[in-house]
Amino acid sequence: MTNARISLDPPRTLLFRAVSWYSNRAYGKVIDPVRVNAHHTGVLWAGARFELAVGRWKKLDPQLKALAVMTSAATIGCSWCMDFGYWENHRHGIDPRKLRDVPVWRESEAYTSLERDVMAYAEAMSLTPPEVGDALVERLRTALGEAALVELTTMVAVENMRSRTNSALGLTSQGFKDRCEAERPASRRPPRSGH
After folding, report:
1. C-alpha angle with apex 78: 105 to 74, nearest 5 degrees?
2. Distance from C-alpha of 54 to C-alpha of 150, rounded to nearest angstrom
3. pLDDT in tens, 79-130
4. Nearest Cα to Cα of residue 113 among 136, 93, 147, 145
5. Taking the alpha carbons of 82, 87, 90, 92 in that order, is the dihedral positive or negative?
6. Alpha helices for 28-78 (secondary structure H)
7. How far apart are CA 95 and CA 135, in angstroms?
8. For the whole model, what pTM was predicted?
9. Mean pLDDT confidence for 140-144
10. What is the domain-level CATH number for residue 107?
C-alpha cells in the first residue's frame, strides 16, 4: 500500500519506458520517484540527465558522500530516501552499523571525527533556515580541500531537493532495506569430514 499523493501509474511514454528499463536494471524495480516524475516529461528528462551527471562526481570520498546524503534525508524525514539509501550504500560495502545509526549519529560511536563533521554539516544545511557555522566549514575545507567541500555542499543540496520532493509527494519505503538481508551471500557449507 502506498501513501503517494500522486499516481504511481504515469503515462507510458517512450522516455518513461526507457528510464523504467534502466531503473529495473540498476535497482531491480522501477523506483517511485521515476513514476512520479514521469507525469512531466521535461522533469523526468532533466532529472535523469542530472542524476547521471551527479554520479560522475568523484572529488569526495564515497563513504563521506553517502553519510552526508543519508543525514540530509534523515533530517528532512524522507523515509523513501532512507530506505533506498540504506540499500544502495549497503550494496557498496558501507558498514551497516554506520547506515543504521544515521538517524541517531550524535549518540553513536560508529563515526570518525571527520564523518561527524560531514554529518553535522549535512544536518545544518538541511535545516530551514540553514545553520552552517564558519568553524565547521573551515574544518571541512582543511580536511577535504575546496573541490571536495564544493561537492559535499552540492550533494547535500541535491539530497534536499530529492528528499523534500519525495516527502511532499508522499513517497515512502519501497522495501529496499528489507532486501539487504535477503541479498546476503549464502553461508558456505561446512567442510566434509575426510576419510
Report:
1. 10
2. 13
3. 999 999 999 999 999 999 999 999 999 999 999 999 999 999 999 999 999 9
4. 136
5. negative
6. 32-37, 41-54, 62-76
7. 28
8. 0.88
9. 98
10. 1.20.1290.10
User: What is the C-alpha separation between 134 and 148, in angstroms, rounded?
Assistant: 17
Q: Do 163 and 82 fall into the same domain?
A: yes
Q: What is the DSSP string of 70-117?
A: HHHHHHHT-HHHHHHHHHHHHHTT--HHHHHTGGGTTT-S-S-HHHHH
Q: Burial of 21 by CB count in 10 Å (0-12 exposed, 13-18 middle, 19+ buried)? A: exposed
Domain that holds residue 141: 59-181
Cell numbers of 35, please? 513514476
The total domain count for the chain is 2
Q: Which amino acid is at 19?
A: V
Residue with cell 564515497: 62
Q: What distance, in Å, lies between the first and last C-alpha atoms of the chain? A: 56
Are 89 and 17 in the same domain? no
Q: Looking at residue 181, what is its pLDDT? A: 56
d(CA 78, CA 54): 20
